[in-house]
Amino acid sequence: MKKLLLSLAVMSTMLAGASAQDYYGSIYWSVATPTGQFRSFVNETSVAGFGIDVQWWASDHISGGLVLGYNLWSDVYRGVTQQFQYNELQGAINGTQVHTMNSFTMMLGGRYLFGGSRDVRPFVGLAAGTITSSQVIDVSLVRFQETNWHFGVAPSLGLLIPMGYNSMMDLSARFSYAMPSGQALYGASENTLTFWSINAGFTFGN
Q: Among candidates 118, 190, 191, 110, which has minimal Cα distance to 158?
């Protein structure tokens, strides 16, 4: 909780000087697919995700601000043997297992937008900050959980499509990479978190 409050305080301080400028906000649904070692833990695409971006204009083509998001993955494994590591315990688990991953994204990010204010505007984006990973393995009545904070980066590509006065459709693809932190319950050598997300929502603002 202290790390969360500190991260939000730092972000708020950095944005305070820009609060008087025009800004726009996006809210979107996020569909996310795990990649890399993360697929060994949960190999399912998640539709349980959402995000909020708030961007302040630095110029007609450049904006910067907050990138916030949440994603949840869950998968059931039956009759499989899973490599396992928890604190000093290491071995394998056999039986029906439910694997769950919760992840929060809290980053500072920017966009470069092409075109004019009333055009369809392609954009490229880059964000950096913190990503949390909360791994859970449920086996019968036993639960193992490991939660860690990671430094992460997230490049993106997208489109803003005008819909009406001060409103646009926001479509984007983002790759999120969380650097190693803590340990992986599923026996991987490094606890990283990588995933692709397709995001669709609406943008409002100046």
A: 110
